[in-house]
Structure formats: C-alpha cells, structure tokens
C-alpha cells in the first residue's frame, strides 16, 4: 500500500519544509555567505591571476592595472550598484510593501500591523548599516575599528600638492590641517586628502553591506510572498469576493503584474549583491577583513530575523516577515 507523503517525511525535514513555506528560512541558509567567501578566497589563493591582484585594500598603495574587470574599483556594478547599495535596497524593500499580498490584500488591521513591523525591521537594519559604515557619533564603527587596531591615514598629499608655504603662519596652518586629517580618521576624509588608509584592520564594508542587504531582502521577500500570506481571513474573503466580482480581471491583472515584477526586482538586487560579494571575496581584502564584515552582518540578521523566533518579547516588537 502506498504511504502518504506526510508519513515518509521525517518530522525534522517536515519542520524545515514548512518553515520555508511560511517564509522563514532556517538558520543554515545563512551558510551561503561563509561558503561564498570561502570559495572566493580559495579561488583568489589558487588562481595565479587573482593572486597577483589580491591584497588588502588597506595596503594597496595606488592604482593597479586590473587584470579582471571586476577587480577594478571603477567597474560599473561597483559604482552604480554597491556604492549606492542602500538606495537599491530601500527601493526594493519599498516595492515589496506596495505590491505583496501580505501588505496589500490582508484585512486592514493585519496589514497595518505587518507594515509597521516590516518598517521597524527596515529601521533596525538601516541603523546597523549607518552605524557600521557611515556614522557612529563621529567616525563609523569600521573606521573606529581601523584606527583602534593601529591604522592611520598616510601619505597625505593634499599639502604636498599645494604651493609651499611662504610664511611661518602658513606653515603652521598646514601643519594643523595635517594633524586634523590624521585625527579625524575616517576613510572618506583620508581619501579626500589623497592619503592611504594603512596599517590597521580594515573591515570590509562591501562584505558587510552586501551580506546585510541581500539577506534582508531575501528574508523579507520570502515572508511577504509566503504561502501563509495567501489565504485570506474569512471576513476578508467575503469582502474581497464582492470587490472581485465587480472589476476583478483588470485590477487583479495589474496587481499580479506588479507583484511578480517587484519580486523579480527584489531577487535581482539580492542576486547582484551576492555576485558582488563573490567578486569582493576574490579581488579585495584579506581573509580576516572579509570575516569581520561577515560576522557583523550576520549578527544583525540574527538579531532581526532569528532571535524573534525564540524571544517572544522581541517578536512582539519586531515581528516575523509574513506573519
Ligand atoms: C527604532 C527607530 C529608529 C529610526 C531610525 C530610522 C533609520 C531609517 C531611516 C533612514 C533612512 C535612510 C535611507 C537611506 C537610503 C539611502 O538612499 S542611502 C543613499 C545611498 N548611499 C548608499 O547606499 C551608500 C552605500 N555605500 C556604502 O555604505 C559604502 O560605500 C560601502 C558599500 C559600505 C563600502 O565602503 P568602502 O569605503 O568602499 O569600503 P570597503 O568595502 O572596505 O572597500 C575598500 C575599497 O575597496 C574597493 N572594493 C571592495 N570591494 C570591491 C568590489 N567588489 N568591486 C570594486 N571595488 C571594491 C572599494 O571600492 C573601496 O575602494 P575606495 O573607494 O576606497 O578606493
């Protein structure tokens, strides 16, 4: 006699499958990131082409002749995608809020609750991105880690390029400016002064942001389009039925198209982020610099998406995508 599928699937596997179906990827799904970094780093260690390019961006003295297009800092994906990556991430996330059933076709109260919690999750990851890469009551966390680990801005040429000071006052000002640049210590200030960020532990901002953005979008997209969001509550079903009978085909058609294209866009941004992560792993930074970027990003994702599964009070505040 044939056995039903529910009896052939082990409870553990069943739980894992139902987690995926309800839009909650299991924690092991995050392994894709260390594996990507590992594969990229191994490739860079083994491939003779990559070996000649791969060195810490912190110690890279100046422009190098790129062997591979993705080893160039000015590659089009780096400039128009990664360097403004949070804008793409925000756009993709907003498109989910406006098109996915979880936020548009559920009963009003549930819709409001889900949207507020999704915005809170966005605020948490955005704050983490800002504090880590942009500003942390002054220099960002990665800049502070760099200087705390002994790094500094060297070879500042801004003054060397300027006309030599003709008076002691001018020399004094020049000295003061140099000292200020050395003590501000942000990667941006250093770059603006044509200096080189040297000596310390330069956490990979690319790895951090690409892991954070792609995991955030993937988990939100899975939640928003999960099976659990599809069935409507009884009252809502009836209401929806009345609307549907009026002008079903036109509205539903447009809705469906936006829904599908929004999901494609979100997965496109997530996949391109993953690809750029792999490129970063091959062509830039050291093992440790990549690992520290990864650990910070994974911690933020864990706190935002995995901790609420076990910590009820936190789940009450921040929710779980699609629930
Ligand atoms: C609870 C309530 C709270 C409420 C609170 C609300 C908060 C919530 C509301 C806020 C609302 C905000 C909403 C914002 C929405 C936006 O629109 S923000 C505006 C858009 N801006 C962005 O997205 C900026 C994103 N970029 C970044 O953050 C940084 O550029 C990154 C990505 C972290 C990278 O930083 P980085 O300095 O490049 O550092 P790193 O990765 O270490 O790379 C070092 C070098 O190697 C190169 N490199 C590394 N990997 C690669 C690669 N794969 N290819 C080429 N080059 C590479 C880099 O280009 C870099 O070269 P240089 O530029 O230094 O020459």
UniProtKB/TrEMBL annotation:
Annotated catalytic residues: 206, 285
Function in brief: Fatty acyl-coenzyme A (CoA) diphosphatase that hydrolyzes fatty acyl-CoA to yield acyl-4'-phosphopantetheine and adenosine 3',5'-bisphosphate. Preferentially hydrolyzes unsaturated long-chain acyl-CoA substrates in the endoplasmic reticulum (ER) lumen. This catalytic activity is required for maintaining ER structure and for lipid droplets (LDs) biogenesis, which are lipid storage organelles involved in maintaining lipid and energy homeostasis. May directly bind to diacylglycerol (DAGs) and triacylglycerol, which is also important for LD biogenesis.
Top-level enzyme category: hydrolase
Protein name: Acyl-coenzyme A diphosphatase SCS3
Family according to the record: Belongs to the FIT family. Fungal FIT2B/SCS3 subfamily.
Gene: SCS3
Keyword NAD annotated: no
Example of a GO biological process term: lipid droplet formation
Enzyme Commission designation: 3.6.1.-
Domain of life: Eukaryota
Transmembrane domains' residue ranges: 27-46, 79-98, 119-137, 203-222, 265-285, 291-308
Source organism of this protein record: Elaphomyces granulatus
GO cellular component annotations of the record: endoplasmic reticulum membrane
UniProtKB keywords: Endoplasmic reticulum, Hydrolase, Lipid biosynthesis, Lipid metabolism, Membrane, Phospholipid biosynthesis, Phospholipid metabolism, Transmembrane, Transmembrane helix
Catalytic activity of the protein: an acyl-CoA + H2O = an acyl-4'-phosphopantetheine + adenosine 3',5'-bisphosphate + 2 H(+); (5Z,8Z,11Z,14Z)-eicosatetraenoyl-CoA + H2O = S-(5Z,8Z,11Z,14Z-eicosatetraenoyl)-4'-phosphopantetheine + adenosine 3',5'-bisphosphate + 2 H(+); hexadecanoyl-CoA + H2O = S-hexadecanoyl-4'-phosphopantetheine + adenosine 3',5'-bisphosphate + 2 H(+); (9Z)-octadecenoyl-CoA + H2O = S-(9Z-octadecenoyl)-4'-phosphopantetheine + adenosine 3',5'-bisphosphate + 2 H(+)
A molecular-function term among this protein's GO annotations: coenzyme A diphosphatase activity
Location of the protein in the cell: Endoplasmic reticulum membrane
Membrane topology of this protein: Multi-pass membrane protein
HAMAP family noted in UniProt: SCS3
């Amino acid at each position: 006699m044939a056995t039903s599928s529910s009896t052939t699937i082990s409870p553990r596997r069943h739980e894992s499958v139902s987690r995926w179906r309800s839009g909650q990827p299991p924690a092991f799904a995050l392994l894709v990131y260390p594996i990507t970094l590992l594969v990229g780093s191994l490739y860079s260690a083994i491939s003779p082409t990559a070996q000649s390019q791969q060195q810490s961006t912190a110690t890279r003295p100046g422009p190098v002749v790129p062997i591979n297009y993705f080893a160039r800092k000015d590659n089009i994906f780096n400039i128009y995608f990664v360097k403004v990556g949070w804008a793409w991430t925000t756009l993709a996330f907003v498109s989910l809020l406006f098109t996915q059933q979880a936020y548009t076709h559920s009963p009003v109260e549930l819709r409001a609750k889900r949207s507020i919690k999704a915005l809170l999750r966005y605020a948490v990851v955005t704050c983490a991105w800002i504090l880590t890469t942009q500003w942390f009551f002054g220099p960002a966390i990665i800049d502070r880690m760099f200087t705390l680990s002994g790094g500094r801005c060297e070879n500042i040429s801004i003054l060397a390029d300027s006309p030599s000071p003709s008076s002691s006052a001018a020399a004094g000002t020049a000295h003061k400016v140099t000292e200020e640049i050395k003590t501000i210590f942000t990667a941006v200030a250093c770059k603006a002064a044509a200096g080189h960020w040297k000596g310390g532990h330069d956490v990979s901002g690319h790895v951090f942001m690409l892991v954070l953005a792609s995991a955030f979008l993937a988990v939100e997209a899975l939640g928003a389009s999960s099976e659990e969001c599809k069935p409507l509550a009884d009252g809502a079903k009836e209401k929806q039925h009345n609307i549907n009978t009026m002008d079903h085909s036109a509205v539903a058609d447009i809705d469906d198209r936006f829904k599908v294209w929004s999901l494609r866009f979100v997965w496109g941004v997530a996949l391109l982020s993953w690809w750029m992560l792999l490129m970063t792993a091959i062509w830039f930074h050291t093992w440790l610099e990549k690992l520290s970027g990864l650990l910070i990003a994974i911690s933020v994702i864990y706190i935002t998406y995995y901790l609420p599964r076990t910590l009820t009070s936190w789940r009450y505040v921040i929710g779980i995508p699609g629930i």
